[in-house]
Design brief:
Layout: H1 4-18, E1 25-28, E2 31-34, H2 39-46, E3 51-57, H3 70-76, E4 80-87, E5 96-101, E6 104-110
Antiparallel strand pairs: 1-2, 3-4, 4-5, 5-6
């Protein structure tokens, strides 16, 4: 029984399926902010956010899904500062959350309200 053609077809289908992922962007004032933009660029394009927050994200061991325990991370590992800005895009539109890491847009999500 030869499964090579079937395995190749499955691989091609999975590759095609997963290759449609794209980065989000935030449409503001006739222009758009997107991943990789600086904080100043987002401010220029979209204005002041409704809310902004800066917090220290957990630091993970290299190559591991486990975070470094807080006492050790605080004493020996620098903080990973993450900044989130929330934009209210008006009635009928989802709230946009722009996450910055190292001063650049890391992600843009829609519909997430602060807890």
């Amino acid at each position: 029984m030869n499964t090579t053609p079937r395995a190749g077809l499955v691989l091609v289908a999975l590759t095609a399926c997963c290759s449609f992922a794209h980065a989000e962007s935030l449409r503001c004032n006739g222009t758009s902010a997107s991943e990789g933009d600086s904080r100043i660029a987002v401010l220029y394009k979209c204005g002041q956010p409704v809310l902004a927050d800066v917090y220290c994200a957990p630091v993970f061991y290299s190559g591991s899904p486990y975070p470094v325990p807080a006492p050790i991370a605080g004493a020996y590992v620098p903080c990973q500062a993450v900044e989130e800005w929330i934009y209210d895009r008006g009635e009928g539109n989802l709230v946009a959350t722009v996450r910055f890491h190292n001063g650049r847009v890391q992600s843009i999500r829609y519909g997430y309200y602060p807890h």
